[in-house]
Structures are given as C-alpha cells and as structure tokens.
C-alpha cells in the first residue's frame, strides 16, 4: 500500500497515518516528525530545518527531497507506506514520482482530509506531543490517562513551538498556497480523493479505510 494523506496542519494526518500504517503493517513516514527529531538531536539538518519551522515556512525542497530519498530507501518502506506531510508542493510531488518509479511503487491514493479553519485552531492549540516517543494527544479530545504524561513511555508531554496561534495561521496560509496545485497534480493522475476530516478519530479512520477498500488499495 502506497498512499498519501493531505490536509491542513491539524487536519488529523498524523493521527490517521499512524493508525493506518499500524493496521496495514506499512511504514508511517512523516517529514515533520523527521525534522523535529533532527532538531532534537542537534544535527546540521536540524539546525537548518529549525529556522524555517519556527516561522511556519517550508524547509527548502532540495533538503526535504533528499531526506525523503534516504527514507524511502530504508528497508521498512519496501512493504509500503503512508506519507504524512510530504509532498507539500508540486516540485516535491514531481520528485516523489521519480523516486517511486525507481522503486516500482506508484502512489495508489492521495487522500485529502477536509477540516474548516476554526476546528483546526481548536485542535492545534490543544495538541500535546511526547518529545521522547512522538505520541500525540489533545487536552480535550484525546487526553492522556495522567494529565501531562505520555501513556506510552511516561515522559512529560510538551507543546510544539510552532503551535502558537500566529504561527498556525502562517502555516495555514502556506498550506493554501499549494493546496490547489497538489490536488490538480494527483487529480491528473487519477488518484486524488477528498474526505471530511470531521467527527471522532475513529469515524475518520472508518471513512478512510472504507475508501481504500473501495479502491482496492487495502485488502483487509
Ligand atoms: P502539520 O501539523 O502542518 O502537518 P508537520 O509536522 O507536517 O506539520 O510539519 C511541521 C513543519 O515541518 C512545517 O511547518 C515545515 O516547516 C516542516 N515540514 C514538514 N514537512 C515538510 C515538507 N514536506 N516540506 C517542507 N517543509 C516541511
Ligand atoms: P496533522 O498531522 O494533520 O497536523 P494531527 O493528527 O497531529 O494533525 O492532529 C492535530 C490535533 O488534533 C492533535 O492534537 C490530535 O489529537 C487532534 N485530532 C486529530 N484527529 C481529530 C479528530 N478527528 N477530532 C478531534 N481532534 C482530533
Ligand atoms: Zn512517549
């Protein structure tokens, strides 16, 4: 299974990609998570990425595409993947086509999760992440068992630097600049689909699963 989840920041891509990848036994590949890990580790990549991420801007394409090339070459990606946060614009989508052609694994579906801005702001400002294992929570919709503590690994939860309202608005603007070109790109290849991202996480998962089964992308 090779699919892409598209949508605004906070649309639920990460939440759904993680569950889908687990159920389908494929890799969950999230460029945002990879950049955040690099920032945490203090690598050269991390230093470069940080200056863009703080502003809600995109990390330059050559860097992001290089990162993706390495990631797709890893063994676990050979079984398939759910991409989350990549591609973000047409040059990245073009580059991805090239990388996948080399691997003989075309994109079977690019699914956009649609969520209105007001709901996005509500979701993002309540989002909490575990800096150790990457698990995500929401203070209102998906609270951890003990407030402020990761269920999975016990680490203290944090809020992302780029989740202040002003930066979120900037990220929404960047998203809008490229949303149409991405939709057209995948529409032209017959794999673009749009679903409502509203409702509970479980409801959205059922919607995506149903679509993928209808398309014959997912056998389960
Ligand atoms: P979102 O919640 O918007 O899906 P991500 O975790 O995917 O956020 O991305 C966080 C930040 O990481 C982005 O604002 C951007 O700076 C950077 N980033 C992630 N993926 C990409 C990409 N494909 N191209 C360029 N920058 C990216
Ligand atoms: P993205 O990867 O698209 O930026 P996330 O999956 O990280 O989005 O979700 C953003 C925030 O919204 C998280 O705090 C998450 O727990 C919450 N969230 C995700 N899906 C839903 C949903 N269906 N209903 C309410 N909140 C959700
Ligand atoms: Zn954790």
Average pLDDT rating: 94
Bound molecules: adenosine-5'-diphosphate, zinc ion
Distance between the termini: 12 Å
The helix count comes to 8
Q: Segments where pLDDT lies below 50 for 5+ residues? A: none
Fourth-tier CATH superfamily name: P-loop containing nucleotide triphosphate hydrolases
Q: Which strands sit side by side, in order, in the main sheet?
A: 2-3-1-4-7
Q: What share of residues is helical? A: 40-55%
**Largest sheet: number of strands, sense, barrel closure:** 5 strands, parallel
Summarize the structure.
This protein has 220 residues and is of the alpha/beta class. It has 8 helices and 7 strands.
Explained architecture:
The chain is of the alpha/beta class and 220 residues long. It contains 8 helices and 7 strands; from the N terminus they run E-H-E-H-H-H-E-H-E-H-E-E-H-E-H. The strands form 2 sheets. A 5-stranded parallel sheet has the order 2-3-1-4-7, with helices on both faces. It has a two-stranded antiparallel ribbon with strand order 5-6. The protein is globular and about 45 Å long. 48% of the residues lie in helices and 14% in strands. The N and C termini lie close together (12 Å). Helix 4 packs parallel to helix 5 (90-103). Strand 5 (127-129) and strand 6 form a beta hairpin.
